[in-house]
Amino acid sequence: MSRQRLRDLGISIGRLEPGPHNAITDVPGVRVGHFTLTRDEPTVVRSGVTAILPREGGQVLTSNVFAGIHSFNGYGEMTGIPWIEESGILDSPILITNTCSVGVCRDAVCEWAVQKGAPQRFHLPVVAETYDGWLSDITSFSIAKEHAWAAMNAAASGPVAEGNVGGGTGMIAHEFKGGIGTASRRARLGEATYTVGALVQANYGARRMLRCGGIPVGDLLGPEVTPLPWPVPRDAGSIIVVLATDAPLIPVQCKRLARRATTGLAWVGGYGTNGSGDIFIAFSTGNDVPPSQPGGPTEPVPVRMMPSETMSRLFLAAAEATEEAILNAMCMAETMTGFQGRTVHALPLERLKEVMTRARAALTAR
Predict the structure, then answer these.
(1) Max CA-CA distance within the chain?
(2) Residue 146 is inside which H or E element, if any?
(3) Is residue 168 part of a domain?
(4) Residue 120: inside a domain, yes or no?
(5) What is the pLDDT of residue 308?
(6) Is the pLDDT assigned to residue 164 strictly greater than 90?
(7) Which residue from 42, 61, 208, 277 could staple onto 118, CB 3.0 to 4.6 Å apart?
(8) pLDDT tens, 303-345?
């Protein structure tokens, strides 16, 4: 069977409806781009960079967005956290790559911003990572600034490539092939409808813990469905979650939204192991925030925010989008052989569909 997203398999989860592309790009203005690097010489590399632009082109440099961070378990890296915690403002693209390439990608964003004519005197960009060293020679330091630029320059609206692409190229999820995944949900609040989109770089989890729509598919698939990537089962790794919404949120509300990625992660079977870097960022495009610059505006800036009573619907949207984004990453990822001849097998879609059909039929029959 060719690789398909979860819904294309006939498996729908959650209560809210997705946006037209079921992707983070359903949030107006949000763009995603990838650069994928796969080679066997002079060293085996299965890596890349994924870029999320909160506004079209370089507009985030001149029209910043409010943002919030949540670290579920902090054995990982995301640059730019102190300033977002302090100011609640995101003024750069978000890049995701491998653990050893955070620095070069961060520097690349700074130079990209200068080339775009950014008004800020200096830059504190957001770059996050997960470890792809099982399938890629991570110590070859193969990612260069040109690769980060390529990801940012490729950022576009519409459908988003998933699985073995960009920063997710060499990642592993629940002991199947993992990588990049995305999904969205629409939440109607009063007379308005808002979108919450999620993009994940999934590189965590044990097979026995895997769930899909509440069904313990990790157990039901059976240990013989595909070989494990390593000699004995293990539960390690990390996940980065980026949430975007067009609902007008202030920074503390973005932080609250970011926390709800934890719920979606838990629904799939992640629980934040000691060695896991589970770091989540949420941003809102619902306000235009002027950049910090010499001679900038000194007058108060009008800001809109959602009433606290309406946040629960957005929380559900964030949790559901995160859950489905992780599963989409696994459904779209293909079996990969990489560093030292190691092979990580893809989630078997025919078997997943069979297991879900039988489990749901059994529940209906009760």
Answers:
(1) 68
(2) helix 145-153
(3) yes
(4) yes
(5) 94
(6) yes
(7) 61
(8) 999 999 999 999 999 999 999 999 999 999 999 999 999 999 9
Number of domains in the chain: 1
* Residue range of the domain that includes 156: 7-294+301-365
Residue with tokens 């302090």: 86
Cβ count within 10 A of residue 105: 30
- Asked whether residue 100 is assigned to any structural domain, the reply reads yes
Q: Which residues are designated catalytic? A: 238, 276, 278
Rg (CA), the chain: 20
Strands 94-98, 126-130: parallel, antiparallel or unpaired by DSSP? Answer: parallel
User: pLDDT over 90 for what percent of the chain?
Assistant: 90
Distance between CA 266 and CA 237 in Å, rounded?
15
What is the token pair recorded at 75? 């054995």
Provide the Cα torsion 23, 71, 275, 139; round to 10°. 70
Q: Is residue 2 included in any domain, yes or no?
A: no
Give me the count of residues in the chain.
366
CATH number at residue 251: 3.60.70.12
Q: Are 186 and 313 in contact (CB under 8 A)?
A: no
Angle at 90 between CA 86 and CA 92, to 5 degrees: 135
Q: Measure the CA–CA gap between 142 and 45, rounded to whole angstroms.
A: 7
Q: What is the pLDDT of residues 41-73, one digit of tens each?
A: 999 999 999 999 999 988 999 999 999 999 999
Are 182 and 197 in contact by the 8 Å Cβ rule? The answer is yes
